[in-house]
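Table S2 (continued). Query chain:
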Amino acid sequence: MTDKTALVTGASRGIGRAIAERLAADGALVAVHYGSNKAAALETVNAIETAGGQAFAVEADLARNDGVDQLIEGLGGRRLDVLVNNAAVFGPGIDATEEEFDRVFQVNVRAPFFLIQKALPLMRDGSRIINISSGVTWFAIPETVYAMTKGALNALGRSLANTLGERGITVNTIAPGITRSDMNTWLDELPGAKEGVSGITALGRPGQPADIADAVAFFAAPDSRWVTGQVLDVNGGLYLGPRAPLHH
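Corresponding output:
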């Protein structure tokens, strides 16, 4: 990915940081977007540079209507080859207030949509768009609003893949399983949580951010040139079914 530029939203920590580090390791100049935690973003940039890569931090609050414009301005007119929509906020359920509902959709759906719209003029033909969805689009959780936003991303990817195909731009979606991140601190905080997740995952463990980052790297690379409009479950075989026979 030498001479290519990638933008990763929500890249200051967790899965986003792992994605930024992997794309930088593959040779890309990475724009590390963050919403408010400047120290964490600079830590990510420093880690990338220490490893011999190139990166810079860009601040933008995607919960604000002008957040996407702020982010585009932060790119300084650079061309873009890879856009990874990773930033998201979690919650709530059917008891959501209108304000809570709007904020989750603002960050998780509105921001990726308009970021793609405004980034397209900066993107060369043959570029890559990768959206980070979730397994909650096919299994149920109480946080209904969050699940709805991820379903919207899946639909966005299929639709855009079809319309952007004439420019050779691929659009793919990754749906992580239960993965260690700031959103899933309960894995270590709740007694038995890690063991419970391991028990319903074929490969016997929760995901690590690097597991997701490696899948992103495939979609960002030339190797994925004939793959578009897909949702890839990267989940270690989550909820595949019982391991023991149901009858004896």
